[in-house]
Amino acid sequence: MALNFLKPTYLVKSVYDLSVAELKDQGIKAVLTDLDNTLLAWNNPNGTPELHAWLQELKEADIEVVVVSNNTWDRVKKAVAGLDVDYVAWSLKPLPRGILKVLKKQGLKKEEVLMVGDQMLTDVWAAHLAGVRSVLVKQLVESDMWQTWLNRSIEKLAKRIIYRKFGGPIWHDSLGVAAESKDNKTN
């Protein structure tokens, strides 16, 4: 199928549903994550208590979280200031540039990394191009920054085509369930 590069490895409701146990089980040493509407609601710069607890759990388990964002260096630096995570800005997703930069810098193998995001056209596609597994999550909030409008419009068309072929999405509460699903459909 022509749009296979937009099909994520996993469909999980939220980045916070990625548990330490499952990540360790999958051999994951680093979770690369988009910023806006994946890790943080774009209009909630401080994050939620749930986010801070999740980040702490991963830190205690020696699983690194790295933000890979298309935003400017100033925007990303400001957004992650209170989160104690590394980041790559201007990653130019869907190009794999940001993901590959993290792999090289951290000395990680592709199978030790997950790329998590809320957009197929940027996050999932970049993961495919970089050769790493992808996790598509639901948007934290329905609204987006104005720059995201075009991507979302194109993505809606791609979703219609994918839904016709595979059916609607089946969202999971964990990686384990998503990995076991034989019908892991795409949103």
Automatic annotation (TrEMBL):
Supply the alphabetized keyword list. Hydrolase
One Pfam family of this chain = Hydrolase
NCBIfam families in the record: HAD-SF-IIIA, YqeG_hyp_ppase
Q: Which domain of life is it from?
A: Bacteria
- In the UniProt record, does the keyword Lipid metabolism occur? no
Q: Where is the signal peptide?
A: none
Q: Which Gene Ontology terms cover its molecular function?
A: phosphatidylglycerophosphatase activity
Gene3D superfamilies the UniProt entry points to: HAD superfamily/HAD-like (3.40.50.1000)
Keyword Membrane on this protein? no
The protein here is known as: HAD superfamily hydrolase
